[in-house]
Amino acid sequence: MTFTLVPPPTEPTLRWSARAHSIAEVEAELSRIWASQDMAVRVEGETTRHIAARTNVMNLIVIARRPEFAERCAATVQMLTGRHPSRTIVIQSADPDGPSWLDARVEAHCVMPRPDAPETCAETIHLTCGGESGRHLAAIATPLIIHDLPVTVWWPGEPPLTSPSARDLLSAADRLVVDGSTWSGDGLARLREMAALGESTRLAISDFALARQSRWREAIASIFDDPDFLPYLRSIRRIAVTYGTHDETGALGSTNLVKPV
């Protein structure tokens, strides 16, 4: 039995970590986490036993093409354990032209709402896939999701929405989360791909870039709630929005129109 100091409430702590080298081994480690309930913590100098409760509300699949994306996204998800616990599967691809291999790290992060309450825990599965394995995202993620829970795909960077691998993965998802402000060029081609995806599937799409702009849209809309402006609303015939579409060198199409300019 291992005793650890309890962190402040709502602060996640790593309670379990294991390595695996196949999907079957990952599933075995997940089962082992919740089969082991011998978790005790020390509260104000006294030993108190707390049973960890797995309370996943969704499956979250993060496609991180770069290590820094994986680290940043995993850190964000861990901080949400107390409010939105999920089974998170972070997938990175490496050495696409080499032999097929898989390296996984299975973790359980827990939050104790208060000293007399059981911990709330959620799993994070870090998968690094090489060779052929890295090109079949759906085959890797699908066996690890919790059935009967919604599936959200978070794709930082520039998702290849028209690729067969992306289409297969998104066909089983309920929501896609992107950040259009990180796209290269003017972002319009990716927007068209995303719009076509939304029209041809039942997928709900969320964009962090548009969410960040919501306060500006609300501020502009609130102008028309001012009684002093109401007499002029019927006279408005056209509203023009101008974007800075050239960079300092005069190159066209180099400014991302998705983020505020």
Write the layout of secondary structure elements.
Layout: E1 3-5, E2 13-20, H1 23-35, E3 40-43, E4 46-49, E5 53-54, E6 58-63, H2 67-79, E7 86-94, E8 101-111, E9 120-130, H3 137-141, E10 151-154, H4 164-170, E11 175-178, H5 188-200, E12 204-207, H6 208-212, H7 214-222, H8 230-233
Parallel strand pairs: 1-3, 5-9, 6-7, 6-10, 7-9, 10-11, 11-12
Antiparallel strand pairs: 2-8, 3-4, 8-9
Summarize the entry for a quick read.
The protein is an alpha/beta fold. It is built from 8 helices and 12 strands.
Model description:
The chain is 26% helix and 27% strand. It is an alpha/beta fold. The strands form two sheets. Strands 2, 5, 6, 7, 8, 9, 10, 11 and 12 form a nine-stranded mixed β-sheet that branches. A three-stranded mixed β-sheet has the order 1-3-4, with no helix packed on it. The longest helix has 13 residues, at 23-35. The model has no long low-confidence stretch (mean pLDDT 80).
